Each structure stands twice: as structure tokens, then as C-alpha cells.
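Q: For a teaching session next week I want to show students how multiple molecules come together into a single three-dimensional assembly. I've collected the sequence lines for a complex. Could you give me the predicted C-alpha cells for the whole thing so I can convert them for display?
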Amino acid sequence: MGKKSVVLFSGGLDSTTVLAMAQSRGDEVYTLTFDYGQRHSVEVERAGRLAKEMGVKNHKVAHIDLRIFGGSSLTDDLEVAKHRKTEEMASGIPLTYVPARNTIFLSYALAYAEVLEADFIYIGVNALDYSGYPDCRPEYIQAFQTMADLAIKRAVEGRRVQIETPILMMSKKEIILAGLKLGVDYGKTHSCYDPDPEGRACGGCDSCLLRKKAFEEAGIPDPTPYA
Amino acid sequence: MGKKSVVLFSGGLDSTTVLAMAQSRGDEVYTLTFDYGQRHSVEVERAGRLAKEMGVKNHKVAHIDLRIFGGSSLTDDLEVAKHRKTEEMASGIPLTYVPARNTIFLSYALAYAEVLEADFIYIGVNALDYSGYPDCRPEYIQAFQTMADLAIKRAVEGRRVQIETPILMMSKKEIILAGLKLGVDYGKTHSCYDPDPEGRACGGCDSCLLRKKAFEEAGIPDPTPYA
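A: Of course. Below is the structure for the complete assembly, covering every listed component.
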């Protein structure tokens, strides 16, 4: 039998590909999704459905209220930027930045991994997608690993939890092609920051634009249902 | 005016002393308490009352459900160990260990500090109190700091959030004497892992025993109301 893995899973293009990768290795996979008061909370529901369809061992939703702090257009009532050019997205840290988001997500995953006695945490961070988020960089992940190795009982006793970032240095096109090979149904994944009430993608936010571009570059018809 | 500080505050002996220390420096203090499904949730209520009495700028309670993972006698329905000898407490990591607790707490504090534009996070970890928790050691705190410096926008832009651990290397006696100098009313602090319904301390859990011993060593009458 494979080892146990916790996969941080939003149901989006990146983390769904990562989930398929963990499964392809034969791991027993436990998905963890966050309901953090995000505007696009439809993703939480969809993630649960998709995880089950993909046959994970268990799926958990952690409710965390990042709205008590504020500070991001994903959790506040700020306008989500629409139809920005790739160069605009690339300049600096975007408004959709959520303070310490990956640090909080990885911390929860670390707690969960220790309780499960899991050997791996998978996270779909990507350093090349123009996002500009500081907590998607390789040096950040490395520093989190070093900290994690000192933080938990399991690691201190010699059984570390390894953080796996299989798509860290892949382009969106490479991610999509890898996922298709593993049988990922991207029509069921959800990336939009600002979906309509039925959960259909807006087609104009940074996440939708990058996703569209990725399917174009991959030469694959975009299966996303748009509003 | 002083700088802004986030103080991780449980209302216990250690974090109340740390709060008084941050205030004595002239900082504008924002306390953050966690309701994490702990058995001793009376501490959450008391912490709020005490923070207000001590005149903090703002007090927030973050609700996080660590029970979804399980794995600790503080969040599960395990028996809390009673009347253990100090040597027993010192041997290994205790049952009251909560996986990745300080990592989760510090991650939230980091998010909050970034939104507030605070320069400091205070945490009342103590390496000398026989607790055996891996996430109370200096090397852990140092690794968290390194990670934090790479994690958040503010730090990447050159304004780091500094993690302050003023009681890290102090004995319980030294902590109490320092707190009394700063006017801390220890009768209002709460340390017990297993209080009765009225919130009175059990007198027998590790936390109560260490607290009693501390007042004895400090030569100060123990002001704790016991059940």
C-alpha cells in the first residue's frame, strides 16, 4: 500500500492536477479544503464533490474566518480586477493577495498530517504563473519545511512530513498536459475569483484570464462553463 | 506613540505577563485569542475580559476547529492527566500536545500583523517549563521567523514582523516576579486544563501543578481560585 498524503485542495486547475499526481503515486490521499470566507465559496462545494468523484480516502473542510482580519479582495468587499493584461498581473503583489494564506493552509495541513501519520503534504503552488504571491516561491516552501521539521512531535522523533510541490516550476500548459495524461476532467475544476450565483466563471478575473490562456497555449478546447 | 503589536493571548499566567511586557514598552497592543474547541473554553471568555481590563487597543477571538483533526487530550475526550510528578511531566511530549498548535497560532498572528501593519508578534512560549512541546523551543521560533520573513508581502517589501518571546528563557518564578512588578493581577489569569463548570481550577493537571509550584518558589501567595 502507498503512503498517506494530505493534499491541499481547492478544486481548481492546479490543486486538482496535484491531487491526480499524488494518486498516481499510489498514495492514500486525504484532501483538505478551506472555507475562509472567500467570495468564491462555490469552490468549497465543488471541491468536495470533485474529491469524492476522484476517489480520495477522506475529504475535510476546515472553516477558518480570515475575514476577522480583512486585507484582501478575496475576503473583503473590494472589487475583483477584471480584464487585466498579463503585464499588469505580473507587476507586484496583486489585490487578491491574502495575508499569510499559504502559511495558514500549510499549518493546518501539518496538524492534520501529524494526526493521520501522513508522510506527505501536497500543495499546488506555482512560481511561474505571474501571480506575484510571496508564499508561492521555492524559498518560502523550503523555509516552511525547515520550520515544520522543528514544529511537530512526529518530525522531532525522526519522521518528518515532506512538503511536495510537484507543479512549482511547471508552466500552466505543462500542468494541463500532465493532468490530462492522468485523466483530470478540467471541466469540473473551478478557478474563478468572482463566479455568478450558479457558480459559472466570470471570464475576466486574473484567474480566469490565466486559465483561458493556458488552454489556448496547450491547444486544448477550454472546458470551463462561463457566465 | 509606540509601535503596534499583536499579542497571542490565552489569559494564562505566561501570556498575561507577556501582554504586560508589550504594554510596558509603550506598544499599541492587539490581543488575539483562539477558540480551538479546547475543553477549557472558559479561558476564551476570561481572556476577553482580562484583555479589556488591561486596556488593549482591540481584542479578537479567532474560532478555529482543531477538533476536525483530533489528536490531543485538550481537544478530544481523553482524560487530562492529574497529579503527575514533575519528572513525569519532563519525560517526553505530553498528551496535552496539540499538533502544530503554535504554528497555527503564529500563522494567524502573522496574517493579523500584516493587516494591522504591526511590527511585532508576542508569544509567551517558554522553553524551561518542563512542557516538552517541540514548538516552544528557541530553534523552532527562529525557523518560524525565517519562514515569516519570506511569507508575507510586508516582509518581502522590507518591513518584517518580528516575533518577540520575552519569557522564552525565564523560569516560572522569574515570570511571576516580572509580572508582579508590572502590576499583573494573577488572580484573574487562568491556567487550568480542566476547570469546573464555574471556571475554577482543578488543582491537579500539569498546568495547575506547575503554577502552584511557581507561586511557591516565588514566595507569593497563590491567588488562584480552586474548585
